[in-house]
Amino acid sequence: MSLRVGVIGAGRMGQEHLRRLAAIEGAVVTAVADAILPLAEQQASAHGARAFADPADLVRSGVDAVVIATPGKLHRAHVELALAAGLPFLLEKPVAIAMDDALAIRDAADQAGVITAVGYQWRNLETIPFARSALDGQAVTMANATWYWTTPLVAWIADRDQGGGQMVDQVTHLLDLMRHLVGEIGSVDARYSTRARGGQPGFNNWDSSAVLLHFETGAVGVVQATYALFADCPIPVMLDVISRDLLVRITSTQVEVHRPGSSTTARAKGRWGLDLDRRFVEAVRTGDRSLVLCDVAEATRSLAVSLAANRSAALGRPVEVAEVLR
Asked: What angle do CA 321, 177, 157 make, to 5 degrees?
């Protein structure tokens, strides 16, 4: 029997999850909810599902699991609806915008005992096992990430009060991947700027960020991120992981491994992000939690790094990640 999935949030990411679920054998979308009912109806019609304006009605509609793809400030309320019905859920990242909400979600999910997953797509890329294999047994000394972007197209993401800023909404993918490949990040020292887009109508955000990372292993890292550029900027989103005589370069489409005198590349062949949803579906169908690469508890630690960076930039000093997780 197919897993009956309801999707809460029919915007950009909700529609992406709907497309992925449609491609997964053993999953069927039976309900879509959005505060904008015509949008929910449009997406539900395309997938042969029922439409709701109220997500509370969706969780009572007979679904077996839910995908929550709403703005971060709404996540806690929507997770609480799912947990009240005993439903496993896939939650878009970040877990929340505020750490208090994220910790409440984490603790409630743990108490409920349901399977959870969070939308850290980079960790789920089919090329990442190739990177992990290359790094196995290596003493990583540095990890550097770059995310050059433009003004977010989604209005609430362009507002740091709603979306948390680029570190929370976007660069969190690379911080999570750093944790996955290198280890826990102990402290951050961040500085943010608004010189490029400060005062731009519809943009209430930092436009550039520079963050120094200190890993618990002794490795160091740097994150450079900006909203100051343009959509077709030729510099890809990228993570470099460095050990002695080894460079592992990760982009959204491939992983390159460079050693003295040799280079190898693993290229993605499947649909972007599909493995994230497929792993969640199979975990719920089989009860095998190990299929999920990033659950709510793990994702909360990644969010803590982003929020520590925001705090560091505000205070003008280094911040221990543990300060945020308390």
From this structure: 75
